[in-house]
Design brief:
Length: 499
C-alpha cells in the first residue's frame, strides 16, 4: 500500500504554493510560484485569476515531482487562501469577467459610503460581525457587476459565479462551487449565527444569491479532484489563510491567540463557540468548523500592510535589492533616529478603520538616513500589532502571557525581538513556521481520518524559537506614545475631491 501524505494548496496574495506534509506535520516537499501584482491606478490592486489557476496546477505538479509522489500517495487535499479577494466568472465558460479585486483594494469606498447612509458603518455588524469597509468581498462583487459591461444582466440571469480564491481554486480543481464558513464570514454576506448567506444583506449590496457558493465546514469532504495529477483525491479542507494559521498553530482552546506576519499582519483570538462582538475595532469572524460540530469563532485584528511595506521599499523606492537586506540595515543603527513609518496605503485597518488615512513617514531630521528608515519600516509592524493586542485584551478581558507567531517575517530576529520588547510579553515561533498550509492540511486530514483527532495537532506543535522582552518599561511606553502620535498625522488625508 502506498505511503500517504496530505497536500495543501496555499493560494496567497503574492504567490501560490503546494506543500506536502506527513503525519508529524513535517514538510515533505513544496513548490511555489509568484503571480503578478496589478496596480491600474492609486488604491486599486488586482490579480489575474487565470494566472493564479495556472500557477496552482503548476505547483501541485511541482511538489509531487519534488517528492517523487503520485496521487496514490495523497490522502486528501486542503486549500487555504488570501481572503476577501473577489473573483467573478462565467459558469459556462469558466472565464473570469475581469481581474480579481484584491483584499487591499479601496475602490469600493463609495459603495460602502452609500450603504452606510442607512445605519452607519456598523449597519450589518450585528449579523455578519464586520463593519462596512472596502476590505471585504461583498462590495467588490457589487462593483464588478456595475462596472463590467453586461455583468449585472448576466448575473441576474444566473450565468455568473462568485468566490474568494478558495472557491475559484476548488471550482477549477473539482468543478464544485463551494466555500467554507471561514471564507464566507469574510464577505459581509453571511449570518454568523446561522452560517448561511443573508438574503437581506445580499439584496442591499445588489448581489444575486445565485452567484454565491454553497457553504460547508472547514474540515469535511467537498469533492474529488478532476485535475489529472490528483484525479480522485478528495478536497476535504478549506480555511481562509489566517484561520488556517490559527488551526496550524494549535490555537484550539478559547483564549489562545496567534499573529501571522505576511503581506499584512493578522492576529486571531479563539473565543469558543459563541461569537463575541467587538467594541474596540476588531472583527468577529468564524475561526473554524470541524464536520458537523459547532463552529468556533474568533476575534481578529487585521493590519493591511506588514511584509508588503518591505516589498514596497524594495520595489518602489529601491532602497534595498532583497527583503533580507532590511534587517541588515536596521541592525546597523541602535534605534529609529526618531523616524516613524505609518503604512496606511489602503487606509488604516484594525483597530482604527479609517479609510481616509494614507501612509506617512514622520519625525524626520537631517540625522535620519536609510538605516533609520529601514528600522522604522520593521518597527511599524510591531507597533501595529501592539495596537491590535490592546484592543483584543479590552474586548476579551484576557491578558496574553505570550504571543504565538508565524509567517515569513518571523524569520527576522530583529523584528521579533522588538515585537517582544514593545509588547512586554514573550513571542514564540513554532518549529514548523508554515502554519497556514499546515492548518489546511490538518483540516483535510482530519476529515478523512489521516489524523484521528485535534489532539494530534496539539501534540505535533513544538516551540522553535522564543524572544523575551529586554526593553525598559519607560522606553517601551515612550516609543509607543510617539507611534500613536505618528498615526494621527495620517488621518483625514482623503477627502471629497480625492478619487
Amino acid at each position: 500500500m502506498a505511503k500517504k501524505f496530505v497536500l495543501a494548496i496555499d493560494q496567497g496574495t503574492t504567490s501560490t504554493r503546494a506543500m506536502i506534509f506527513d503525519r508529524s506535520g513535517a514538510v515533505i516537499a513544496l513548490d511555489q510560484v509568484e503571480h503578478q501584482q496589478i496596480f491600474p491606478r492609486a488604491g486599486w490592486v488586482e490579480h489575474d485569476a487565470s494566472e493564479i489557476w495556472t500557477n496552482t496546477a503548476k505547483v501541485v505538479q511541482g511538489a509531487l515531482a519534488a517528492a517523487s509522489l503520485t496521487r496514490e500517495n495523497i490522502a486528501a487535499v486542503g486549500i487555504t487562501n488570501q481572503r476577501e479577494t473577489a473573483v467573478v466568472w462565467d459558469r459556462h465558460t469558466g472565464q473570469p469577467i475581469a481581474n480579481a479585486i484584491v483584499w487591499q483594494d479601496t475602490r469600493t469606498q463609495a459603495i460602502c459610503d452609500d450603504l452606510a447612509r442607512e445605519g452607519g458603518t456598523q449597519r450589518f455588524k450585528s449579523t455578519c460581525g464586520l463593519p462596512l469597509a472596502t476590505y471585504f468581498s461583498g462590495p467588490k462583487i457589487s462593483w464588478l457587476l456595475d462596472n463590467v459591461e453586461g455583468a449585472r444582466e448576466r448575473a441576474e440571469a444566473g450565468d455568473l459565479l462568485f468566490g474568494n480564491t478558495d472557491t475559484w481554486v476548488l471550482w477549477n480543481l473539482t468543478g464544485m462551487h463551494a466555500t467554507d464558513v471561514t471564507n464566507a464570514s469574510r464577505t459581509m454576506l453571511m449570518d454568523l449565527n446561522s452560517l448561511q448567506w443573508d438574503p437581506a444583506i445580499a439584496e442591499a449590496m445588489g448581489v444575486p444569491m445565485s452567484m454565491l457558493p454553497a457553504i460547508g465546514p472547514s474540515s469535511g469532504s467537498f469533492a474529488e479532484c478532476t485535475l489529472d495529477v490528483l484525479k480522485g483525491v478528495p478536497v476535504a479542507g478549506i480555511l481562509g489563510d489566517q484561520q488556517a494559521a490559527t488551526f496550524g498553530q494549535a490555537c484550539l482552546e478559547p483564549g489562545m491567540a496567534k499573529n501571522t506576519y505576511g503581506t499584512g499582519c493578522f492576529m486571531l483570538l479563539n473565543t469558543g463557540t459563541t461569537p463575541v462582538p467587538s467594541n474596540n475595532g476588531l472583527l468577529t469572524t468564524v475561526c473554524y468548523q470541524i464536520g458537523d460540530q459547532p463552529a468556533v469563532y474568533a476575534l481578529e485584528g487585521s493590519i493591511a500592510v506588514a511584509g508588503s511595506l518591505v516589498q514596497w521599499v524594495r520595489d518602489n523606492l529601491g532602497l534595498i535589492s532583497s527583503a533580507a537586506e532590511i534587517e541588515e540595515l536596521a541592525i546597523s543603527v541602535p534605534d529609529n533616529g526618531g523616524a516613524y513609518f505609518v503604512p496606511a496605503f489602503s487606509g488604516l485597518f484594525a483597530p482604527h478603520w479609517r479609510p481616509d488615512a494614507r501612509g506617512a513617514l514622520v519625525g524626520l531630521t537631517r540625522f535620519v538616513d536609510k538605516r533609520h528608515i529601514a528600522r522604522a519600516v520593521l518597527e511599524s509592524t510591531a507597533y501595529q500589532t501592539r495596537e491590535v493586542l490592546e484592543a483584543m485584551e479590552a474586548d476579551s478581558g484576557v491578558a496574553l502571557s505570550a504571543l504565538k507567531v508565524d509567517g515569513g517575517m518571523t524569520l527576522n530576529a530583529t523584528l521579533m525581538q522588538f515585537q517582544a520588547d514593545i509588547l512586554g510579553v514573550d513571542v514564540v515561533r513554532p518549529q514548523v513556521n508554515e502554519t497556514t498550509a499546515l492548518g489546511a492540511a490538518y483540516a483535510a486530514g482530519l476529515a478523512v481520518g489521516y489524523w484521528d483527532s485535534t489532539e494530534a495537532i496539539t501534540s505535533n506543535w513544538g516551540e522553535g524559537a522564543r524572544w523575551t522582552p529586554s526593553m525598559a518599561d519607560e522606553q517601551r511606553e515612550r516609543l509607543f506614545r510617539n507611534w500613536k502620535k505618528a498615526v494621527t498625522k495620517t488621518l483625514d488625508w482623503v477627502d471629497q475631491d480625492t478619487d
